[in-house]
Design brief:
two-stranded antiparallel sheet, 8 strands
Length: 385
Amino acid sequence: MATRFWRNERFLQVLGQAAFLLLVLYLVYALYNNMVRALQLQGLVTGFSFLQQTAGFDIGERLISYSRSSSYLRAFQVGLLNTILVSALGILFATALGMVVGAARLSTNYLVKSLAKVYIEIVRNIPLLVLLVFWYTDFFLKLPTIKEAWIFPGPIYFTNRGIAIPWGIATASFRTYLWILMLGLLITLGMTWLLILKGRRTGRPPLVTLWSLVTFLGVAVLGWILFPQPPLTVDIPYIDGLNIAAGLTLSPEFMALVSGLVIYTAAFIGEIVRAGVQSVSKGQLEAARSLGLNAFQSLRLVVFPQALRVIVPPLTSQYLNLTKNSSLAIAVGYPELFSVSGTIFNQTGRAVEVITLIMATYLSISLVTSLFMNWYNYKVRLAEG
């Protein structure tokens, strides 16, 4: 005898999930209506038209043009780009430092291993906000004045007004050179695809990364040589009275934020790398050695590709944490997304709209990061399968 549909376990599960979803939607609807009524009682209306109004405040550091006469939307874009810049640089350098620290934790040298362990234990147990404030006030603001600047080869100037480094200035041929770099990227992608196909056909893993890098650099160097005028000219910083002229000056706020995020996140990444490498059985390393591979080749070709299966998922969480932790920049005065949005809120009083924009932006950045890392994790698993 067939089971009645209201007694079917699968039907009951679907019904329960549908009822829960309806309950959540009802709660969201009720909260939204309550918010709208509260705003109406105060004579306030919701909407994002205020973003077109004149901002009327300055932003010290920006990647795009901005002035006091720009709109709130433009100010929000400046903060967003600053957040993306800090997050991208933080992820890049934290990954590099974390891998070095993780490798040091696995070193057979007692001193190297102990120093890496001490670094990890100290940094992981200090609140990030405390670390950022300490790094900003007790290091970068305590650097010498411009007249007594520390000068390193480059030249690079370390002062309490910032760190000045040489920088490139675009010439008339720079835009054309960008097209050449795009062409080089397409050629590199084609070369990578051909090498992967050759590896699958022959069964021998080609040096995809090496040859792809050589191809791109070859096109870039050739394009640079062919131009009668270099696409970039080097702008060397120098001390001009009480200021540093030319070059690029990285503010103490920017350096404190990026370096603090890198130092903090690298401690967690180091432990992730150590755990990932140790998850690979010792038999794999012994098999690699028996094939005549040296220690570096064994790590690069055998151990690390298998360790990525364990490393990538928690590494994604650290990348997301770093991006969200960039909102602590308000403690050191760097104008990233949260700091600029706070100024917009203080001037307009549009709490709901501003907070919604902040949450939606951070959510979008996190989803894009997760999407890329999940794709990479899938490719790693596919290669190992």
